[in-house]
Amino acid sequence: MRRIDYTSVLSADYRAELEALLFFNPEQHRFRDKIRTVIETHGVPVIHAEKDRLNVRLKNGSEVQTLYALAGSKARSQLVGVVVYTRSNPATITVLHIAVSEDYSSQGRHHKQMMVPLFIGKLREIGRQIKGVTMLRLLYDTDKFREIPV
Fold first, then answer.
1. Mean pLDDT, residues 5-21 taken together
2. In this predicted model, what pLDDT tens digit does every residue of 32-69 receive, in sequence order?
3. 85 pLDDT above the threshold of 90
4. From CA 144, how far away is CA 12, in angstroms rounded?
5. Which of 23, 98, 133, 145 has the most CB atoms less than 10 A away?
6. Is the pLDDT assigned to residue 141 strictly greater than 60?
7. How far apart are CA 131 and CA 43, in angstroms?
8. Termini Cα distance of the chain
9. Secondary structure (3-state) at 33
10. CB of 119 within 8 A of CB of 81?
């Protein structure tokens, strides 16, 4: 298994990879209606560069956080996943977007890495560190949303 590192900071060198994951992901057709609903409800994600770092924001100005997954060596890691989330109320972290590279999807050659469950686990860890957060809400998961205790 390849080593996966998580970070909330991403170098501007990853812009093309981040654009590909968020906007041109070959798996997004599976979630098209849910993505549209999230965008209509919460806003359009945009990539913003500040100095030598990238972050994802919502066009409407709503505050979001981003967690990136990098695989490989420190010398040159590959961006393999991104999750965009917000604290929708004092007790809930809501996952707005999750995107993983095709190689790390459920059908990819590194599918055993289980990127989406790993992201959920990391967000649960983050939630446990924030006073008052008790729930993680997923919007893509089912016909409705799914809530997971942190």
1. 95
2. 777 787 878 788 999 999 999 999 999 988 889 999 99
3. yes
4. 35
5. 98
6. no
7. 26
8. 26
9. helix
10. yes
Q: Is residue 116 over pLDDT 90?
A: no
Based on its alpha-carbon atoms, the radius of gyration of the chain, rounded to whole angstroms, reads 15
Contacts of 64 (CB under 8 A, 6+ apart): 45, 56, 57, 58, 84, 85, 86, 96
pTM assigned to the model: 0.88
How far is C-alpha 104 from the geometric centre of its chain's CA atoms? 13
Contact by Cβ (8 Å): 99, 22? yes
Look at residue 4 and tell me whether its pLDDT is greater than 80. Answer: yes
Q: What is the pLDDT of residue 29?
A: 66
**Of 134, 40, 132, 139, nearest in space to 85 by CA:** 139
What 53-57 contacts at long range (C-beta under 8 Å, 24+ apart), as own/partner pairs, is 53/9, 53/10, 53/11, 53/12, 54/10, 54/11, 54/12, 54/14, 54/15, 54/18, 55/10, 56/18, 56/22, 56/82, 56/84
Cα angle 27-30-36, degrees, rounded to a multiple of 5: 105
